[in-house]
Prior knowledge:
Layout: H1 4-26, E1 39-44, E2 47-53, H2 62-69, E3 82-87, H3 99-106, E4 110-115, H4 125-132, E5 136-139, H5 143-149, H6 151-159, E6 163-171, H7 189-200, E7 204-208, H8 209-215, E8 228-232, E9 252-256, H9 264-270, E10 274-277, H10 283-292, E11 297-300, H11 304-312, E12 318-324, E13 352-359, E14 362-368
Parallel strand pairs: 3-4, 4-5, 6-11, 6-12, 7-8, 7-11, 8-9, 9-10
Antiparallel strand pairs: 1-2, 1-3, 12-14, 13-14
Amino acid sequence: MRSAPIVEEIAAIDAHYMGRCLELAARAKGCTAPNPLVGCVIVAEGRVIGEGFHPKAGEPHAEVFALRSVSESDRPLLSQATLYVNLEPCNHYGRTPPCTEAIIAAGIPRVVVGMIDPNPQVAGAGVERLRSAGIEVTVGVREAECQRLNEAFVHRVRYRRPFGILKYAMTLDGKIASSAGHSLWVSGEAARAMVHQLRAECDAVIVGGNTVRRDNPLLTSRHERNPLRVVMSRTLNLPPNASLWQTTTAPTLVVTSASLHHPLIPQLQAQGVEVLQLEPLTPTTVMTQLYQWGMLTVLWECGGSLAAAAIAEGMVQKVWAFIAPKIIGGCHAPTPVADLGLAQMNEALCLENVSWQTVGEDVLVVGYLPSRPPVPSLQ
C-alpha cells in the first residue's frame, strides 16, 4: 500500500502533466468543431517521451499524435510509461479508430484521464476498456479545468446546441453607444485585441441588421482564423456596401425570413455572401442550424434587442462584459440588453462563477448565466 507522501507526490506529478495536456489542447481552440479540445502527454523515467494534440475534425486524436511522436529509441519505455490525456480516450469507430486500442497495443500500463467524455458513445466505456485490458486508470485529475476547457463541447453534447457567448463593451453608466448611436470606441485597444482573440476561438459571430447599419463592423479576428460572420435580418433592410459583404477574408451568412426574391439577395450572392431563409427567424432557429453544421462556440456581438432575445431563449450561456471608465449619459442611449420582461430586482439573472480582470484601462467581467427555464420569447 502506498504511503501518504508517495500518494501526494504522484498526485502532484499527475496534476503537472495534466496541465501540459491542457496547454497542448488549447492550441487548437476554434479549430476542432464539432470535436473537443484534447492534449496528450506520455511520460517515462521522469521525462516526456511523447506528446500531441487533436488539431481538427478528421485528423487523428491526441493520443495517436502523442504515440507517433515517441522516438524509436524511447519506444521500449512505453511498457513502463504513463499516458496523460485531458478527455477520456474514445472506444468507438468514428472518422478514426478507437484510441483505447492504440493505447493497449502500445503496451502502456497506466493512463491518467482528466474527465469522462460526455458523449454517449464514450461516457466511461473508454476507461472500462482500458481497465479490462489490465491498464491502471486514474480519472478526475484537474477535472474542473478540463471541464472548463471543453465547456462548449460538453454543452453541445448535452443540449444539442452550440455554446453561446454574449460579448459587449459598455460605459460605466451602462451604455454601448451615445444617444446619437456613436459607439467607436467604447473600450480600449487592449480590450479590442482580446476580443479579436476570442473571435478566432469561436466558430461563428452573430449580429443583427441594426448593428450592420449603425456600426458597419468587419468582425474579423486579426488572426489566421476568422469565424463565420452571421447577420440576422428579417427584412433584409441592409446597406448594399457593408464591410461584411467582403468575403475574401472571412465568410458571411445572412439569415432572413424575407422572400428569396428580395432584390438585395443577388447582390449579396455575387459578392460571395450565403443567404439562408429561416422561418421563424429566432436565435433558437439560427443556433439549431449552426449546430447542424457542426459548430461548437458562437459569439453574440449584437445589439440590446437581439441580445435580450438570445438570453430569453437560452441561447447564451456565458457573458463577457467590458466596462470602460467612461460616462456618456443619455436617456435614450442604447444598453447591452433590452427588455427581458423582468419587473423585480429579485428576478434579475445573477451570473455564476464570476471572474474579473483589468484589461488596459477597462475591466472585463466574465460569468455564466444560471441554468433556468427561459423567460417567454421576446420575438
